[in-house]
Design brief:
40% of the residues lie in helices and 22% in strands. By secondary structure, the chain is of the alpha+beta class. Strands 16-11-6-7-8-17 form a six-stranded mixed sheet, with helices on both faces. The protein has a five-stranded mixed sheet with strand order 3-2-4-1-5, sandwiched between helices. Strands 9-10 form a two-stranded antiparallel ribbon.
Length: 532
């Protein structure tokens, strides 16, 4: 009988193939993650090199272990470790992409935006349509937003209305509104850009009047750009807080105004809060005196030019921040620790007057959620020195937020924080500038000195450029206070001002503050608003 030798079947080495596939996936994911991180320029080169070396060493060790015979337990542990590294690399790459996209949202600026000009008549006039204005008198103010006025008159002229018979010109809204109230005018042309200012000074305007027509004005956006290496040069940022919910527009009352001087060489951040009602020459209205808050209605560039002229300083960047961002950021951080200086109550962000919605906060050290933190930042009615006291409280909130963000426990929330900022902030910083600053901060993470300053003034009443013909509440800054601001800003750009920090106790202020529309009706302890 002939003997036939059987061929031995070669069995697939499953553990080796598994290790090989795992190694290839680990190498691919690591390379993708490193390319993603390095492309942003967010981390210093040293960190990128260390990450590369770490990835190479891990992959080499895994490859060597794959060639060595192992027991089942060791193989399982090794595979779990590799899977964790792969998942970690994927999570890092995904987080980097999310942060990058969110920053794009922050920096995205529209090419233009729409504003509205309306025709307003008294509700009891019987005028309900624009056609009812034929043969009637229409008041047109000629001091601000003249392009809006021209558009409205051009549209009305299509109905047969003309300059000789129907349009009556006024130098300000105050005179035009008075004649509308008196019945001498049948309607008035109102730039909706100024409605908030009008309603702030005429409590019954919304109740007595109605819009009968609206026209759209398209405004092109001009981006303010700089060419500064912010990693090695001091720069100044104008932070404008807008009392709105969601993404702020470029033309809103600037309710909270803060100059921030960042000096990366001396590692100092100097903050100066300026009262919203501070009286200074409006750079967009022939340098006539106006409230600082009203300059925001003419655009962020108007606020910047006004501050630059008044304090003789240069402002490099701006950030317009919706007040709703305070709520979202604080809640995302899990609350902030603040030593609240007094008991108070305040209306919520939605301005509800319902007693059940009123926010009550007691004095003392505590963790505030987003709504309470915003309430502290907005409240001034029961603060003894009004706007100056509110500015101090705002800095308490800002300081607490900065401290919380810099805690290691907040690093895991960066994705959520950046997305919140993307929905509520507008700025002219570029992505390159932001990443380069973060890069420099990570490379040299030494302690920074934070200096808080509140600009003080005395309250009074005066006509202002945006509401001529009517006295409104203002804050006068003394020559000495203006000089102090100039000194602080200019010296902050070249030295450490940790020894020049001012507190609220250093300031002589008046308590004769006038409450604004945004405050809670009734102080702490009153029947309508009290602490339980």
């Amino acid at each position: 009988m002939r003997y036939v030798k059987k061929k031995r079947r070669r069995h697939l080495n499953v553990p080796f193939v598994t290790d090989l596939v795992m190694l290839l996936v680990l190498i691919g994911v690591s390379i993708f993650c490193l390319l993603k991180v390095s492309a942003l320029g967010l981390l210093p080169n040293l960190y990128i090199v260390l990450l590369c070396l770490f990835s190479v060493v891990v992959c080499l060790i895994y490859a060597i272990l794959a060639l060595i015979k192992q027991n089942t337990l060791f193989r399982v542990i090794k595979s779990i470790f590799a899977v964790c590294l792969i998942i970690g690399s994927v999570v890092i790459s995904s987080s980097v992409s999310i942060v990058d996209e969110a920053i794009d949202d922050v920096l995205e600026m529209p090419e233009s935006y729409d504003e509205y000009v309306t025709i307003v008549a008294r509700k009891d006039s019987g005028i309900v349509r624009v056609e009812d204005l034929v043969g009637k008198r229409i008041a047109v103010q000629r001091s601000v937003d003249t392009e809006h006025m021209e558009l409205a008159m051009n549209e009305l002229s299509k109905l047969g209305l003309n300059e000789e018979e129907n349009f009556y010109y006024y130098e300000d809204y105050a005179s035009a509104i008075k004649n509308l109230y008196d019945g001498y005018m049948s309607a008035i042309v109102v730039s909706e850009n100024y409605r908030e200012i009008i309603e702030e000074n005429y409590d019954d305007f919304t109740e007595l009047t109605s819009r009968i027509e609206a026209y759209v004005v398209t405004i092109p956006v001009t981006t303010i750009t700089q060419d500064i290496d912010i990693t090695s040069n001091a720069f100044t940022v104008m932070i404008s807080g807008i009392d709105t919910v969601g993404k702020p527009t470029l033309r809103e009352n600037s309710d909270s105004n803060m100059l921030v001087v960042v000096n990366p060489l001396s590692k100092t951040i100097t903050m100066l809060s300026i009262p919203r009602d501070a009286l200074m020459p409006n750079a967009c209205l022939a340098y006539k005196d106006d409230k600082l808050t009203h300059t925001g209605r003419l655009g962020i560039d108007c606020t910047i030019k006004t501050l630059e002229n008044y304090f003789d300083i240069n402002i490099d960047y701006y950030a317009r921040i919706s007040f709703s961002s305070v709520i979202d950021v604080v809640n995302t951080l899990g609350g902030i620790n603040v030593n609240v200086p007094m008991d108070f109550c305040e209306r919520p962000a939605n301005r509800s007057y319902e007693k059940k919605d009123i926010i009550y906060v007691k004095k003392g050290q505590q963790v505030l959620n987003g709504e309470k933190a915003l309430a502290l930042a907005r409240h001034r009615k029961t603060v003894s020195n009004g706007d100056v006291g509110r500015a101090y409280n705002q800095q308490l909130v800002v300081n607490a937020m900065i401290k919380k963000v810099l805690q290691p426990s907040s690093f895991s929330k960066i994705d959520d924080l950046v997305q919140v900022v993307g929905d509520t902030v507008q700025t002219n910083f570029t992505k390159k500038e932001i990443y380069s600053f973060v890069n420099a901060f990570i490379e040299n993470p030494t302690d920074w000195t934070l200096s808080n300053n509140v600009v003080a003034g005395l309250t009074g009443f005066s006509e202002v450029a945006t509401i001529p013909g009517r006295e409104v509440s203002i804050i006068n800054l003394s020559d000495e206070e203006v000089s102090r601001v100039k000194y602080i800003v200019k010296n902050a750009q070249s030295m450490d001002l940790s020894e020049l920090t001012f507190t609220i106790n250093d300031l002589e202020t008046s308590s004769n503050e006038v409450a604004s529309e945004g405050e809670t009706e009734g102080a702490t302890g009153s029947d309508s608003c009290h602490l339980d």
